C-alpha cells in the first residue's frame, strides 16, 4: 500500500512540475482576449495541485481495491494514456502558442480523464469520486480554451517568438 502511495504521489508531482514548466505565462498569454469568467492566473497552480492529488488518491484507491492483474493493468493503461494527454496540452497552448491545436488535443485529454474515471469507479466507488474534480476541471478548461480560441483566432501564421 505504501509503495502505491509513493509511486502515485511521485508521478503526480512529476506531472505537476512538467505542466508548470510547459506553461510559461508570458506577455503573449496576457495579451490574449479572455472571458471575464476566467479564474485569476494565481488559481491555476493550486487547482492543479489539488486535482493531481485527487487523481493520485483515486489511483491508489483503485490499485488497492483491484482484485486481479487485469484490473490493475487497466488502471495503469488508463493513467498512462491520461499522462500523455496531460503532458501534451500545455506545450501546444503555451509553447507553440496554438490554443486551436490545444483545443483539439483537449478532446483526447477529456476522453482519457473520463475513461480513467470509469476504470477507477469499476473497482472503487470512492476512487471514482476522487476523479470527479479532475473531470470537472478539464471540462471547464475545455470551455475556457474554446472561448479563448473564438476571441483570438486565427492563430495560423502568427509568429511564436
The beta-strand count equals: 0
Name of the CATH class:
Mainly Alpha
Sheet of most strands: none
CATH topology: Ferritin
Tell the overall outline.
elongated
Gyration radius over CA? 17 Å
The domain count comes to: 1
Distance from first to last alpha carbon? 47 Å
Query: Unreliable stretches, pLDDT < 50, 5 or more residues?
Result: none
Work out the helicity level: over 70%
By DSSP (H or I, 4+ residues per run), the number of helices equals 6
Portion in strands: under 5%
Assign the structural class, choosing from mainly alpha, mainly beta, alpha/beta, alpha+beta, or little secondary structure. mainly alpha
Which homologous superfamily in CATH is the superfamily?
Answer: TspO/MBR protein
CATH architecture label name: Up-down Bundle
| pLDDT averaged over residues | 89
Order of helices and strands: HHHHHH
Amino acid at each position: 500500500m505504501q509503495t502505491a502511495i509513493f509511486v502515485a504521489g511521485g508521478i503526480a508531482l512529476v506531472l505537476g512540475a512538467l505542466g508548470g514548466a510547459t506553461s510559461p505565462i508570458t506577455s503573449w498569454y496576457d495579451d490574449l482576449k479572455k472571458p471575464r469568467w476566467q479564474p485569476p492566473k494565481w488559481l491555476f497552480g493550486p487547482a492543479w495541485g489539488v486535482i493531481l492529488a485527487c487523481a493520485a488518491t483515486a489511483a491508489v484507491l483503485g490499485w488497492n481495491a483491484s482484485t486481479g492483474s487485469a484490473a490493475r493493468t487497466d488502471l495503469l493503461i488508463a493513467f498512462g494514456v491520461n499522462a500523455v494527454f496531460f503532458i501534451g496540452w500545455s506545450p501546444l497552448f503555451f509553447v507553440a502558442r496554438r490554443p486551436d491545436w490545444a483545443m483539439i488535443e483537449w478532446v483526447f485529454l477529456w476522453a482519457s480523464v473520463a475513461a480513467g474515471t470509469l476504470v477507477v469507479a469499476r473497482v472503487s466507488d470512492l476512487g471514482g469520486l476522487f476523479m470527479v474534480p479532475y473531470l470537472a476541471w478539464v471540462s471547464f478548461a475545455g470551455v475556457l480554451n474554446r472561448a479563448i480560441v473564438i476571441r483570438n483566432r486565427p492563430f495560423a501564421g502568427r509568429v511564436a517568438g
